[in-house]
Predict the 3D structure of the following.
Amino acid sequence: MKIVKLLLLASFLILTSNVVSAQLEWIKFDGELPENAVIGGVETHRSLAICRCNYKGAMHPGKVVERRCNIGWGGKEIGLKRFEVLVNKGVIELDWQKTDGKKLPNHAVKAGEENGRALYVGRAHHEAGTHPGKVFQAGKGYICNIGYGEKEITYKTFEVLVENKPHPDNKRIKHDDRCGSKGKYPATIGSYIGNMSKERMVKEGQSLVSTNLRYQTRVTDDGRLVVEEILDRALCDNSKIFVFQANEIWSNTTKKGDSKLDYYLKFQEDGNLCIYSEQSGFVWCSMSNGKNGHHLELTNIGHIEIVNDHGGEVWPD
């Protein structure tokens, strides 16, 4: 009887462990990104999915670039053709938490180990993009290493991927086939994912979307800069997105009845975030020039921020 009870207990533990781990899964890359692949970054309008690959006897997290998993190792950027892609089956809500490396956030997503040292999924802002990489303990703190430009680059301020909480009602999120290729990020939902570099613009029908697909920021037809929470993340057509709430960052005083002025948002070389009109020119600016702003970022909690190259927020003050 004791043996039977032990076997039943063991079976229960195995089943519950599979239920938890089954929400996030590493799936072998077969030439196309799997459905619900986790997007970890972006560069020059290209989204970067999170991957991991076996190299030198360890599983290293990195980014998918042109059907390779690119990682940083030994001072170099290395791309491997055989790898796995991180997939979220929809029940677990993921978030990116900033850290200065002194402490690892709770519930960090682990990708593998190297010589007994855990390797977690992280990302860092570099050049004009955000690049997934690996986070590991170095001395008394943690660092994030990414592969870029054929080099391994180390950051002491970075973000860590964490398992936050289940989605409401445990509903699985699927991309609609109308988005194009099944399983790929619905590109038409926004022109930029996560962040936007200098001299980039958000025009009519475009938006900057958070990496968890929960928020978008755009300029409305009457010149308001808003951050919107997206209820239905499966829809690709901006005109059909259901908005739960809109938080106005800045409101224009356009009079009712004025003709459409074709407003657009621009993150300028001087670090200012500005709204312009094709017809009347300058409308509004954030007055953030001279603060070493590196890129515009829409966080996974719906905050729009101008961030420096160390990941620090410089606007809003």
Observations:
- The longest helix spans residues 2-21.
